[in-house]
Amino acid sequence: MKRARLIIITGLSGSGKTTAARSLEDEGFFVVDNLPLVLLPEFLKLHVCSGPGNSNVAVVVDVRNKPYLEGYRQTLDEIRSAGHLVDIFFFDSCEEVLIRRYSETRRRHPLSRKQGIAESIRQERALLSGIMDLATEIIDTSWLTPHQLRAKVVQMVAGDQKGIPLAVLVQSFGFRYGIPPGSDLVMDVRFLPNPHFVPDLRPYTGLSPGVRNFVLEQDACQEFLGRFRHLLDYLLPCYRREGKSYLTISIGCTGGRHRSVAIAEYLRHAIHGDNLVVEGVHRDVAKE
User: Where does the record place the RapZ-like N-terminal domain (predicted)?
Assistant: First the structure.
C-alpha cells in the first residue's frame, strides 16, 4: 500500500498557520484546511489509493474543531500504524503579538464569546497543550515576517533539497507607456545613446544584431552591466532567503523598443545561479 507523508499544521489562532499551509501548497503538498481529526485516517486511505500522484499531505487542525481534538492520540496512533510518516508543526506566538494581530485584522478569535481576546488565547493554549507536547517542530512566529515564516517552513520540509526555485522575469518597457505594475526592481537606461536617432537602426528593435551591438558595445553600457550584475549577484540570494518566489526586473527606456530590449535580453541570458528560473518579455517592443 502506498504511504503518505503527512504534516499536521496546528497551533494558536493568529500564529501563522495559514501562511504555513500556503507555503506547503506551493511546495506541492495536497493541503486540507479544518479537517476533523477523526476523518483523517479514512481521508489518507482514500487519497493514497486514488492512483499515482502526490503523497505529500498537509492538514490544518485547530480549535475550530474543538470536539474532535479529544481523541487525537488514538487518531495519530492509527495513522502511524498504517505506515504513514507523520510530522506535527505547532505554531506559537507570544500573547502580546497575538493580541496585536487580532487588533490589526479585526478578526474574531474562534473561542471568543463574552471573554476578551487575552482570555480566549489562554483557553486555546490550554486546549492545545497536549498536541503541543507531541509536536515534531514548535515554531515561534512572534517576530517572524510572513516571508521569513514561509522560508522556514520550506526549509523544514525540503531538508537538503533547495525547495521551489526563484522565478525571475526580466522585462523591457517604455517609460512613455508607464512603469509595469508588479515591478520589484526598475532600472532606467535612458542615459545611454538612443538608436532611435540613428537612421539605419531606427526601424529595428533591440532584438536585431545591429541595435544590440550598438547598445551593448558602448563603454558606458559595459560598465553599467558589470555594476548591475554585481548588484543582482548580491540581491537574488537575499530575496531567496526571504522566501520570495517571484521577482520582476523591469528595464526601461523611452519607447521600450531599442535600449531596454537589448539590455533585458542580455540580462535574461546572463543571470544564472542555483535554483533560479529566468524568463524574459518585451512589453512595448511592437509599439511605434
Answer: 6-161
CA distances from residue 28 to 5, 153, 170, 275, 280 in whole angstroms, order as listed: 12, 13, 26, 16, 25
Binding-site annotation: residue ranges for GTP? 62-65
Tell me the HSE value of 273 on the side-chain side, using a 13 A CA sphere: 21
Cβ pair 243, 163 in contact under 8 A? no
Range(s) of the chain covered by CATH 3.40.50.300:
5-158
pLDDT in tens, the chain (288 residues): 578 889 999 999 889 999 999 999 988 899 999 888 788 888 888 877 765 556 889 999 888 776 666 678 888 888 888 888 899 999 999 888 888 888 777 677 777 766 788 888 888 888 888 888 888 888 988 888 887 788 788 878 876 445 567 889 999 999 999 998 888 999 999 999 999 999 999 999 999 999 999 999 999 999 999 999 999 999 998 887 776 778 899 999 999 999 999 999 999 999 987 778 888 899 999 887
Which of 137, 74, 134, 146 is CA-nearest to residue 105? Answer: 146
**Considering the domain 5-158, what is its CATH architecture?**
3-Layer(aba) Sandwich (3.40)
d(CA 116, CA 120): 6
Binding site listing: 11-18, 62-65
Q: Quick one: cell of 75?
A: 487518531
Reduce the DSSP state of residue 68 to 3 states and report it.
helix
Q: Which residues are annotated as a binding site for ATP?
A: 11-18
